[in-house]
Amino acid sequence: MYGNDAAAALGLRPVRRRHWGRWASAVIIVLLLAAVVRAFATGAIEWDVVGEYLTADMILEGLANTAVITAAAMLLGVLVGILIAVLRLSANPVANAVAAGYVWFFRGVPVLLQLLIWYNLALVFPSIGVPGLWEGSTVEVMTPFMATLLGLGLHQSAYTAEIVRGGILAVDRGQTEAALSLALPSGAVFGRIVLPQAMRVIIPPLGNEFISTLKTSSLAAVVTYGELLQSAQLVYYRNNRVIELLIVVAVWYLAVVSVLAIGQYAVERRYGRGFTPTRDASGPGVRGRARGGVRARKTMGSEA
Amino acid sequence: MTTETVLRAVGVTKRFGDLPVLRGIDLTVTAGEVVCLMGPSGSGKSTFLRCVNQLERPDGGYLEVRSELLGWKRRGDTLRELSHREIARQRRGIGMVFQRFNLFPHLTVLQNVTEAPVRTRALPRAEAERTARELLERVGLAEKGNAYPGQLSGGQQQRVAIARSLATRPFLMLFDEPTSALDPELVGEVLAVMRTLAEQGMTMIVVTHEAGFARDVADRIVFMDGGVIVEEGPPARLLSAPSHPRTKDFLARVTAAHGGPPVPSTETARTPDTVDTADTADTAEKGQR
């Protein structure tokens, strides 16, 4: 350490600064934490009941349903979101306006409300289908699963659309120009060049959205979809172990969120390829119009 | 050398909003010719080059590449706008190298070079990779195939960009200030690759401030200012005895900051950064005259 070296060089004994404030605040924090832990440990919670129900069939089934609906809603949300983002960025004014209106609506109406609207769609349209092809009773089609999927997925797609749009706009225009000048087909310009680079910007916020959707899926209890919270509620209506079962639910949510966070890290690494080792002239930051010629040269010099 | 016309521009005009950038460009480039476009910033050189590759669409006039009208198709007495696919087909024979390289940072060097031939189904992947390795060897980067662009120096990146645009076997190469974003000591390696390419008979249009390169390699220098071609001719005459005052002005400015002889012949001859403000300086000086 620098101080020690200096002291040694001078032949003196170093005396380091004492961080009294740090010590004091650490002690206070630990005491407060201990008080909280003690409160829960000695409170009216039967922890062995928590442990018992953690792996109960009913709970695991709810957990599986939560996982399924989250994955399905996210998939729907991302696919529709990319589509809406592309429409939003298109030169077609109608597509543009419709996409903007879509985001306005599905982002503006509370997700709980959207779930209820989808679930009660039969009140508006007794039967739905494609004329001449297929038709069905809305009540049969709009199962709790379908209502939850559409409610969560479309709500999510509005957010995803904005995230994807931001990601696409963050990709340097020169990338599109280079791809066009190489005569790549328009699908490849977007799919191979622009989108993968946009993904680097899209993934971190999308990871947050995934976690958010996972937690929001607990609202699906109102449309009687048998997800984790709904399952736990059904159990505690019978046995009255309310807090114990809510803790079980919380533990599972935390566990799944932790797994998702690890997955997010892996995906971020995947799309960070080519960006991680060194920042250079072609990386972000130095790009821009020809005007910054002098600045660009300096930045490049630092990497040489 | 054949005299086949590769590019013919007739009265090309282009404006960005209220600002006229090109005010009637007529230019013919024949096969095997190396044409250097020179002139102050804002004179329309890059915009013209981008029109050739249809990254910009001219407002007036037209361009023909190998006698084929760019962007439009004549049918009877109508002129139909081409689809994206047809424009892509027209671009296939034209390679373009950008000032800022514009390599795809998420793909390896080899993938950068194989992307176009593979995606346009010009070559099967295995053959595209073989060709790509040959091209990388030609630009002196045979061992960098698996590196990402971010791991290369600016000069190396630009050489990859040249290899990438050669992968589709173009008959016309466009260079848009290929060395302007490079550190002075990296300029030479890029110019050397371009020089070799010119010697191999590639038809090239090069927007550059490198007077030395222009003098050694160009068959013709076209001097632009204010959106028009002011003067053109063989480098020996245009660089040492320009007839137009604006050409003289520009060349004096390009070389003045250098402190050397009027036309530096070293590969690493640099354009002083004052060129960026040449437009305003230009008008100011003319006002005085």
From TrEMBL, chain A:
Belongs to the binding-protein-dependent transport system permease family. This is Amino acid ABC transporter permease. One of its GO terms (molecular function) is transmembrane transporter activity. Coiled coil: none annotated. PANTHER family: L-CYSTINE TRANSPORT SYSTEM PERMEASE PROTEIN TCYL, MEMBRANE COMPONENT OF AMINO ACID ABC TRANSPORTER. GO terms for cellular component: ATP-binding cassette (ABC) transporter complex. Residues 63-264 form the ABC transmembrane type-1 domain. It is a multi-pass membrane protein. InterPro entries: AA_ABC_transptr_permease_3TM, ArtM/GltK/GlnP/TcyL/YhdX-like, MetI-like, MetI-like_sf. The chain crosses the membrane at residues 23-45, 65-87, 99-119, 245-267. It comes from the Bacteria. It is found in: Cell membrane. Residues 278-304 are annotated as: Disordered. Residues 288-298 have a biased composition (Basic residues).
TrEMBL record, chain B:
InterPro entries: AAA+_ATPase, ABC_ATPase_HisP-typ, ABC_transporter-like_ATP-bd, ABC_transporter-like_CS, MetN_ABC_transporter-like, P-loop_NTPase. Pfam families: ABC_tran (PF00005). This is ABC-type polar-amino-acid transporter. SMART domains: AAA (SM00382). CDD domains: ABC_HisP_GlnQ. It is a peripheral membrane protein. Residues 254-289 are annotated as: Disordered. Its main location: membrane. It is found in: Cell membrane. Its EC number is 7.4.2.1. It comes from Streptomyces radicis. Keywords: ATP-binding, Cell membrane, Membrane, Nucleotide-binding, Transport. GO terms for cellular component: plasma membrane.
